[in-house]
């Protein structure tokens, strides 16, 4: 009998069980903290086929990855996304525990049913404001009504929804408490995120940086937040909201480092595996697969584990360069 493939364990003894896959670096929005107005996207020749992505996902599952999240860019702008979700979704119950998606929601109404059929049970939808003018300002082009319709369609299709909201000083900070109340009424969880220094954008992120420790105190003054031991496989720390019964999570890369418990790696659409969102260490999995098939991939995963950094190097200070040159949309947020 052949030995089982070895689980993925990095040089610091952390077991890697979570893979995020950026299925495209393109997007139909241009959120100010995420992208510059004139982004350059990868040429089509540089992006992996859906079959290559599914093969790499399989290799990870064989090495003990139990959770996969599809993201981008905006994953739902990639043609064939529901088919890719179905390909990977076939592994649910056969090594994979969960397949999820992070989306801006603009095309969710069209795809919610197919995603549910592919095996997804929950999706994260980014929504930084429910006010149409503000939403348009933050995303530069977006129509919030489309996103809200997408969220309703997803719920009707039987998907649980978590709202992701990047906390932006002077832009949406007064909407955080109302967003939590709205989420409570709709039965959604809410995750608040600190803006991270990834890639050059037109604005200085320092101007918009809102530390979440202060936001949590503000919410604790208004609501009963009970710390929850529940985790969803990510770095968010959750609290149950007594008044509404939903949960609020805080992703705090700047104010509270969470790298010690890191369980994840990120695959770009051109096949580079980044070992940390906030560092440049990577291996080229597409090349490894093209040169050596599954055995080549396996060897590349071992090389990857050896170079995963201990922690990110994020810093938000006036005029500081971004920690890494690539945008969140490339590595997959
Ligand atoms: N387009 C999809 C979306 O917006 O949900 C998926 C990709 S997006 C890069 C994933 C998440 O990253 C979103 O919730 C977005 O708000 C967040 N994000 C993007 N750039 C960020 C940054 N510089 N700092 C913090 N969060 C960021
Ligand atoms: Fe697009 Fe998501 Fe980045 Fe906004 S946060 S520009 S929706 S990839």
Question: Any overview of this molecule?
Answer:
The chain is α/β, with parallel strands linked by helices and about 325 residues long. It has a single domain, classed as TIM Barrel (Alpha-Beta Barrel). The protein has helices at about 50-60, 80-90, 110-115, 130-140, 145-155, 175-185, 205-210, 210-220, 285-305, 330; strands at about 20, 65-70, 100-105, 120-125, 160-165, 190-195, 225-230, 235-240, 245-250, 265, 270-275, 280-285. A twelve-stranded mixed beta sheet has the order 7-8-9-6-5-4-3-2-1-10-11-12. Helix 3 packs parallel to helix 5. Iron/sulfur cluster binds near residues 29, 34, 73 and 104.
Going by CATH, the homologous superfamily would be Aldolase class I
Strand order within the widest beta sheet: 7-8-9-6-5-4-3-2-1-10-11-12
- Approximate strand percentage: 15-25%
Ligand kinds: S-adenosylmethionine, iron/sulfur cluster
Judged by helices, strands and strand pairing, the structural class is: alpha/beta
Number of helices: 10
Q: Mind telling me the CATH class?
A: Alpha Beta
The percentage helix is: 25-40%
Measured distance between first and last alpha carbons: 40 Å
Number of strands: 12
Overall domain count:
1
Sum up the overall morphology in one term.
Answer: globular
Low-confidence stretches: none
Order of helices and strands: EHEHEHEHHEHEHHEEEEEEHH
For the biggest sheet, the summary is: 12 strands, mixed
Second rung of CATH, namely the architecture = Alpha-Beta Barrel
Q: What's the average pLDDT?
A: 90
Radius of gyration over all CA atoms, rounded: 19 Å
CATH topology: the name is: TIM Barrel
